Automatic annotation (TrEMBL):
Any GO molecular function: structural constituent of ribosome
UniProt KW keywords: Ribonucleoprotein, Ribosomal protein
UniProt cross-references to Pfam families, sorted A to Z: L31
TM segment ranges: none
UniProt GO cellular component terms: mitochondrial large ribosomal subunit
UniProt-recorded name of the protein: Mitochondrial 54S ribosomal protein YmL31
Origin species: Crucibulum laeve
Length: 105
């Protein structure tokens, strides 16, 4: 029961999503490249002369090179120890804008 071949959650109940506790070097690089691509799109829309409220909100966000590593790879979570959790723990984190956090965190 407590040996090397004890049953895991996968063996007991089926599929279990396993998320690593920290981002790998490759996933960090991909996250940075996504941030840079979004910055490029925002800049292209701004240069085209289009004016809209969504663009104004997007221009207020920090650019990838202005963000500290802490904000690139973690987000505020009131439930996590230290009030931060890895960005990859957020559902659909590759599609969300997670560039801003509360002041002081």
């Amino acid at each position: 029961m407590f040996g090397a071949f004890r049953p895991t959650n996968v063996n007991l109940s089926g599929l279990l999503w396993k998320t690593p506790w920290k981002l790998s070097v490759t996933r960090k690089a991909n996250a940075r490249s996504r941030l840079k691509k979004v910055d490029a799109v925002i800049e292209a829309v701004r240069a085209s002369g289009v004016e809209c409220s969504a663009l104004e909100r997007a221009l207020e966000l920090p650019k990838e090179h202005e963000m500290p590593a802490r904000d690139k790879y973690t987000i505020f979570s009131p439930h996590a120890k230290g009030y931060r959790k890895g960005i990859h723990k957020v559902p659909k984190w590759t599609r969300l804008t997670l560039r801003t956090n509360p002041k002081g965190f």
